[in-house]
Amino acid sequence: MTLTPTRKRILFAVVLIGLALTWPGYTLFAGARPFIFGFPASFAWLIACVLAGFAALVLLYQHDNKRKQAKP
Amino acid sequence: MTFALSMTTSTSPSTIILGIVAIYLLISLLTGVLPSFKTSKSVGGFVAGDRSMNTLLLYFVVGASIFSSFAFLGGPGWAYSRGAASFYIIAYGVIGIVPLYFFGPRAWRLGKEHGYVTQAELLSDRFDSRFLSVLIAALSVVVFIPYLTLQMIGAGYVLNVISEGMIPEWIGAGVTYLVVLVYVFTSGVMGVGWSNAFQGMFMMIVAWALGIYLPETLYGGIGPMFEAIIDAGKEQMLQAPGLAADGSPWTWGAFSSAVLVSAVGYSVWPHFFMRSFAAKSDRAMRLSVVLYPTFLIFLVPILLIGFSAIVAFPGVEQADTILPYVLMQLELPAVVVGLFCAGALAASMSSGDAILHSAASIAVCDGVGKVVRKPLDDRTQRFLIRIAVVLIGLIAYLFAVVIDVSIVALLLGAYGGVAQLFPVVFAMFYWPRANRAGAIAALVGGVLVNTLFLMMPELKPLPLHEGVYGLMVNVILLVGVSLATEPPRKEIIERFH
To answer: Looking at the predicted structure, is the pLDDT value of residue B2 above 80?
Structure first.
């Protein structure tokens, strides 16, 4: 399957999530405070990244399905 | 609950706990053995389930086979002893699963067209090398044995602590893995699939129940629990990247490289990758990958279990036993403890069965099958895989009862070795110029460098995961040697690209 602009954008988002969970991205949210929904900032950031990763995969899947259906 | 309490008046708690564990093992055995009646008696049936796994089964196989003793015991153990360092376990999963979305459907299509059932079959055809197949088989078995050992140790730990030492670890691990051995032996991958569906659902419920219950009971909620950790002067445990094994702050280099190597290795674990061949369709394969983060979220309560013990139960030396230890301290009804105990066993078994099945399949299909002069017929191959199931199970069991190392440390070592497969798998699909010489040089070089730094960490130029150094050498050799030698044959490129 080719790299369409949408696929590229989603893959770029996945790379950003990877950077957000390692140095240097994670250093921005590495502290214990503030607490978000009872979780330390570092933990809440991690959960947010998992949810973002899930959203990216759902978008990728929907995009690919649409392309497959559009093919004759 | 009333039932549990009334039972405890007449029966000892240990008997109830062990009774629940026995029922759990029996259900696992049945769900694992029954699919043998529906699957064909061929190698394709045993190894790839006749390519009939739907999204639901694949979801649990992919999810449950990676969440293991490592997650259920090592995860809380790390959160308890190293705080935010444990976040790496979740961090690598998010990015590590993505390549499988791309590799999986391609592998599935090629498997359907050309009959592949293992990762090494695919690689050895693409790179036109039997030697590569044997090499991957050897590498897979070498990393699978410690991984399987780790699952057995986990099962032994749980039963030992829960029974207050009554059941020695070697008996606990032995009984649990006898059940696994029986259903893997009889049903192959479909036994793994159905038992994982049962075990996966079971441990998800247990993990969420416990992850919410413990902070609530011990501190009055998740927020107050983390506040208590800060009040106890342990704020550093909540700051990424947490603590190193010796209690000093972990470095960002070590944390990031552990995430990177684990993420790179994740999608190419042979037992994980070869489920692509068992998928019913490429859509089922892709959807199971897309849904995977929902399984990943289940690691959040697992880590909460470990965090909940930091202030309430300080000083537990063997951090990997923190979950069963806490359960025993809380004076919970025996039925509840029994269910949690069975959940931890489910985590161990749902990975152990997949590893055992894959290790045996790979050892025979990609190792023995490529070494012997005459091709093995289907019946002989299936027979040999079953023998290998028993032999590999026994070897791992022997290691499990004699070694003494941290569960997560063992797995981190194995990940470095497996990660070396990634560049070769990537090139197989996406770089037509990659050839046999390049692939072999990359794999051998990467594994050697990884092993060297694993054995002698003092030689590392920077405190990064040894897999990073292996991957650098791996990629340089793959590109350099491929470009310096003849390109692959045209018909091979046409088939794969």
So the answer is: no
Q: What does the domain layout of chain A look like in residue ranges? A: 5-67
Q: Nearest CA to CA, how far is B353 from chain A (Å)? A: 27
Contact list in A for residue B235 (CB cut-off 8 A) is 32
Pinpoint the residues of chain B covered by CATH 1.20.1730.10. 18-413
Lowest mean pLDDT among B147-151, B287-291, B366-370, B460-464: B147-151
pLDDT-derived band at B97 (thresholds 50, 70, 90) equals very high
Average pLDDT over residues B114-133: 94
**pLDDT for B37:** 85
Of A23, A39, A50, the CB nearest to B222: A39
Which residues of chain B make contact with A17, given a CB cutoff of 8 A? Answer: 94-95
Query: What pLDDT score does B363 carry?
Result: 95
For chain A, say whether B91 makes contact (Cβ under 8 Å).
yes
- Contact assignment for B101 to A60 by CB distance below 8 Å: yes
Q: What are phi and psi of B399, to 5 degrees?
A: -65, -40
Kind and range of the H or E run holding A21 = none
The tens digit of pLDDT for each residue in B58-93 reads 998 888 766 777 778 889 999 999 999 999 999 999
Mean pLDDT of B409-433: 86
pLDDT of residue B413: 67
Is the domain spanning B18-413 CATH 1.20.1730.10? The answer is yes
